[in-house]
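Internal tracking record. Fields below are filled automatically when a chain is submitted to the structure queue. Please do not edit lines marked as system-generated. If the sequence contains nonstandard residues, flag them in the REMARKS field before resubmitting.
Queue: standard
Priority: normal
Entity type: single polypeptide chain
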Amino acid sequence: MSRDPVLTFTPAGIYCPAGDFYIDPWRRVDRALITHGHSDHARWGMGHYLATHEALPVIRHRLGDISAEGITYAEERMIGGAKVSFHPAGHVPGSAQIRVEVAGEVWVASGDYKVIDDGLSTPFEPVRCHHFITESTFGLPVFRWEPQSVIAAQINDWWRTCAAQGKTAVLGAYSLGKAQRLMSMLDPSIGPVLCHAAIESTNAVMRAQGIRLPDTVLAHKDITAKTHPAAMVIAPPSALGSTWTKRFGPQETGFASGWMAMRGVRRRRAGDRGFVISDHADWTGLLSAIKNTGAENIYVTHGYTDNFTRYLNDSDWTAQVVPTQFEGENLDSAGSEGE
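SYSTEM-GENERATED OUTPUT FOLLOWS
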């Protein structure tokens, strides 16, 4: 007698018939399990939300008055006929892979993930399963990340040079995850770290829940290059080159993204410097994560889906593309927070 698959792919999102819930749905549903707080995964309007305790404060901050509850990593919970647990994804603080088991069959939805330890997020943990739903944001061999210490040295050297030249360093970074990771990489002896309101408000939420972040200053209207010389300013990508940055006087702008690994993107993107760093897995990380799941079937979502799926099938995995509305690291979205 046949039964429904553990997870199915529907117009509303990834659905579990046995538990009657969705994972990171993009349409309004009654019950949503959320991998992390980026706007392409945690959307407003769901009847009830379930996310990790660490992710939930930012989700509440972004979505407002919602019905939601938290869950601890590796805590098992029965939802209808499905056994559910959340496991570290290493993407941003509180991010999770969601494991769903029904009658001994195990599926894992990865959400967004990276396999290196960034010193801020709970490190990625591989989860054994039969079916693995993976992102492929950087699913090409060209994307291979250097150690975080190397990128930290590059950013600090740039900032130090800017300060010596009487310039403000303005660095574009998404307000959840990337910004906090970058500020933890900075050398505070060079100068003060100023944050755009969108980033500083997220900092405040994280500090309130006990996440340790370096000292930063809200870049309100009275903060200028004169009040805070030799500063590093961290701002959303949409603020780079805007009137908001003019009060910081002579400046250089930088952008931190995995897309900076591609020369054409570096040339096209406005700015003086590009730093190759991402909160998503690179080519090697994607392949190692998939291998360590032991999964027989791979479902590839947002990113280089066709290329990555073709490679997996040529390498003796069984893989298929699954259309979703997730964005990954969207370089060109003015308000993007999907990195």
